[in-house]
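Model it.
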Amino acid sequence: LRVRVTDTATGRTKVNVNLPLGLLDAGMNIATQFAPDVNFGEIANAVRSGELQGKIVDVYDEDGGEDVEVFVD
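Modeled.
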């Protein structure tokens, strides 16, 4: 599981965290801080079941100027 947060104004990566799927909930908690309106619980369940792979979340925060992406590699 990989969580990446990018500053869209500069293009710089602010957060790039790789986690084993055993730490899925921790990764989802990180993502929730940047995208609180996304139901990461449902996403975590789909990842655990093997239904999701690749980029599973891509959220752009206009106010904060951040792009949050979550990948299952």
